[in-house]
Amino acid sequence: MCSDGIRLAVDEKKFSKYFVYSYINSSFFRDLAEKSSTGSTRKRIGLDVLKKLSILTPSFKEQQKIADCLSSVDELIEAQSQKVELLKEHKKGLMQKLFPVEGKTTPEYRFPEFRDAGEWVERELGDCLNYIQPSKYIVKSTEYNDSYKTPVLTAGKSFILGYTNEIDGVFLKDLPVIIFDDFTTASKFVDFPFKVKSSAIKILLSKKDINVKFVYEAMQNIKYEVGVHERHWISIFSKLNIRIPNPKEQQKIADCLSSVDELIEAQSQKVELLKEHKKGLMQRLFPVTTST
Question: Type I restriction modification DNA specificity domain: from which residue to which, for each copy (predicted)?
């Protein structure tokens, strides 16, 4: 929802600024504001309308107590989020050491058992991966529900768009795979059954002696700027080169990075749990307002 750049000033002699901030950002107040907003695709609310919406406030001391409680949870969320970012930076640093930089045939760091294994060989992505069209695996209905079993995927940031109860056309063989957006070149590593949203998604499978997780991570190092709106896998990406070691070293690197991914996922889940905890707190600490 858009507010046309409205800035609200709080009389801090009467109200706790953080209490008011938390209240107007609560789900129930935002639902109330949305009901009063205009616009079909992008909801907007003007200052005159916003000023008429009511909030319920306790004494200043109670406001401050509630604000202190919520801000302490926010501090926990921020601290936990920083842990996630540090782990992501750690993985980024690992990848810089575990993969050869441009112009080199070996990485900066090799596991002891592979230090005499020779140079990495250059291969086209198309020599490492087979692709299949997604037509059989495209979801038919977009009526998603979190209680359903099968995730519907995109290769973009959102990744899991929702869950479907469709049982036909679920991709569950030959896992793990890479899903690749043919237009944006975004990619995701997938090791669970799924359906896809769009025909733009290519499903990439590893060929013999190729570790698909290793190739996925190598693809993240490819610097490529998307230009015109065109399909990229067959004409461009499949012809790009990466360097690969022997299968055992591929597996070792993939396992190392997967262990970091698991740490990132575990810490990210803690962030989500803290956010859910805060949401539950707010539902108990604030009375629900209704429109007049």
Answer: 19-84, 119-271
Question: Structure pTM?
Answer: 0.84
Q: Burial, 123: exposed, middle or buried (Cβ in 10 Å; 0-12, 13-18, 19+)?
A: middle
- Taking every pair of C-alpha atoms in the chain, what is the biggest distance, in angstroms? 76
pLDDT tens profile 196-242? 999 999 999 999 999 999 999 999 999 888 877 778 898 899 999 99
CATH 3.90.550.10 correct for 88-267: no
pLDDT per position as a tens digit, 125-179? 999 999 999 999 999 999 999 999 999 999 988 899 999 999 999 999 899 999 9
In angstroms, how far is CA 53 from the centroid of its own chain?
Answer: 34
Listing DSSP states for the chain in one string gives: -B-TT------TTTS-HHHHHHHHTSHHHHHHHHHT-B-SSS-B--HHHHHH-------HHHHHHHHHHHHHHHHHHHHHHHHHHHHHHHHHHHHHHHSPPTT-SS-S---GGGTTS-PPEEEEHHHHEEEE--GGGB-S-----TTSSEEEE-SSTT-EEEEE---TT-B-SS-SEEEEETTT--EEEE-S-BEES-TTEEEEEE-TT--HHHHHHHHTT------SS---TTTTGGG-EEEE--HHHHHHHHHHHHHHHHHHHHHHHHHHHHHHHHHHHHHHHSPPP---
Residues 6+ apart with CB under 8 A from 81: 271
User: Smallest Cα–Cα separation from 81: which of 278, 274, 233, 284?
Assistant: 274
Closest to 126 measured CA to CA, from 203, 239, 202:
239
How does residue 2 score in pLDDT terms, banded at 50, 70 and 90? Answer: very low
Q: Enumerate the domain spans of the chain.
A: 17-80+270-285, 88-267
